[in-house]
What does this fold into?
Amino acid sequence: MNEELRRLAESTAFRDDVSPARAEAARVVQPKSNIMVVDDQPANLKLLEELLTQQGHTVRSFPRGRLALDAAARNLPDLILLDINMPEMNGFEACKRLKADENLAGIPVIFLSALNDTRNKVNAFRSGGVDYITKPFQLEEVRARVETHLQLHRARQVERELLEKTLNRAVKALSDLAHLMSPTLTERSSALRGIVVHMTGQLRLPDPWQYELAAILCLIGCITIPADAFQHAYVADNASSEELQMYRAHPAVGFQLLSQIPRLENVAEMIRLQQTETLDWAKDDAAERGALLLKTAQELDRRTLRGIPFQTACDRLRAMSGKYPAALLESLSDYSPSRALFEVKHLSTPHLAPGMILEDDVITGDGSLNVISKGTTLTVTLVERVRNFAKTRGVREPIQVRVPQGLCVDDSERLLRV
It folds into this structure.
């Protein structure tokens, strides 16, 4: 789980071995922008193509709004210059459709038109445009406005990337804490993530990151439940009424933990609804769809833990009279849970590395404290925890771990620096 979160939050900073001159050049030289021009007048298209190409931009031209929308969906432009009066679909309608698509809504649109009245300008901005240039246009004005909005677009992208990194690292810290408290939850979250990621990929759902995070964090409320109670409710299906009550309360606990984190409101709602019986896949609501993904993944995971083959478990859910959407189960027709191969090693503290799984509890030298529990998958943070205890209070060695095949023990120091 933590390796996947590390991938989501991977840094894009310059490496230390990049020379200052090369780093400065990378900052100064902007990549060519991909600009789309939409106008039914060939002369206008030719003029704008020549102007923008001379500035170093890649330009794609289209005489119709519908053609432009199809092309934008296949290859997102950085900016669109859009005429208003066109056959089949005018610029206002084209812009509205663009902004209604989550994948295209962030593209800035500059309107081009010979219509100079206030009403049309207001309609242009209401439909989602960021600027308005009247025809006949001045080339210097077009150049200046295009560069201004490209710079603003780049700045918004940089800010969004920064916010996403901040969010992902906050989630990683939260996940690490849950990991330390319950290795079992970590293993189950990793299994659920695999199922959900496969479903979202097959179904091509927008913003798949939110469903992936929901899968990783959907059991976080279970940190309040004793381990044996979770085992009885989730795996064995023989929980007492009191244990079942605790288990049924975990979505609300997870919701409370996550709902106050900006941009995780949808994820928190998916987690809150994950045990709800009246969810509707056809409703096209992200929170309900996410909850159904979680619910389906958990039911499949629970059955496979009881020894039922994965595709057999899918067949049994299909037989439950529409309780689980057919689209979700169909998307898993080619899926099988991954089975990593491990070898058992007995290692000293300096040779521990992220990705190894503890076969026994790590305890202090005097046996008075359990540092990390058996079954935990080591992360950078947890390896540092063991090393710090080894320095201050000592730990019993060698430490028995399962090492994924292909992970070199001698690379532990390098892995900790990644």
